[in-house]
Design a protein that fits this description.
Helices cover 53% and strands 2% of the residues. By secondary structure, it is mainly alpha-helical. Among the domains are: 31 residues, no CATH class; 84 residues, Multidrug-efflux Transporter Regulator, Chain: A, Domain 2 (Orthogonal Bundle), CATH 1.10.1660.10. A two-stranded antiparallel ribbon has the order 1-2.
């Protein structure tokens, strides 16, 4: 009886051993699958339909990914049409690979993509010339001090009272030669009391 159970157990192990290599081969992507990625045409901008075709997803998926991934931020034309650059297409392909092929959640894919975007923006976080170890802080402090002193001088110049010179009046009073500039209308019905210039 033990011999029969032992033989049945060996048969199961043999069947499992035969099935195991095919199971391993189907769960791991082959080199051919890993190498083959969609080719991105050499263009400056891509429409959302082009990117959807390249990535193999619908356009609404790309619009949703834009809300979930800050790294995916296409430009918009004057008419509001999305214009993806090559790096946006590469980011969309990476998101698709992480979410669809590798099974990441959106939050997990976002965490994977954050270090990559930080590396891309690494130059903006580089220290300025003259780091702290070679006295850079003292040089910066001295420059700030000089700038403050100059600003105080300018503020003092602006706050000082300005000596005002007397201006000549632009309007000069006219001295009438006859004492009357205009005759009054309506006196005696005479409306023509201006001197005759003939």
């Amino acid at each position: 009886m033990q011999n029969v159970a032992y033989t049945a157990c060996n048969a199961r192990i043999a069947a499992l051993a035969a099935f195991l290599p095919s199971l391993i081969m189907t769960t791991q992507p082959s080199r051919k699958q890993a190498i083959e990625s969609p080719s991105i045409p050499d263009r400056l901008y891509f429409k959302i339909s082009d990117v959807a075709r390249i990535c193999g997803v619908e356009t609404y998926v790309l619009r949703f990914w834009e809300t979930q991934f800050p790294q995916l931020k296409p430009n918009k034309s004057g008419t509001g049409q999305r214009l993806y650059r090559r790096r946006d297409v590469e980011t969309a392909l990476e998101i698709k690979r992480l979410v669809h092929d590798q099974g990441y959640t959106l939050a997990g894919a976002r965490q994977v993509l954050e270090p990559a975007s930080r590396r891309r923006n690494a130059q903006s976080s580089l220290p300025l010339r003259g780091s702290a170890r070679d006295g850079g802080r003292e040089a910066v402090a001295a420059a700030v001090g000089r700038a403050r002193a100059e600003l105080r001088e300018i503020a003092a110049l602006l706050a000082a009272p300005v000596a005002r010179t007397q201006r000549r009046s632009r309007i000069t009073a006219m001295q009438p030669s006859s004492g009357v500039l205009f005759s009054s209308y309506g006196e005696g019905g005479d409306t023509k009391s201006f001197p005759d210039r003939s």
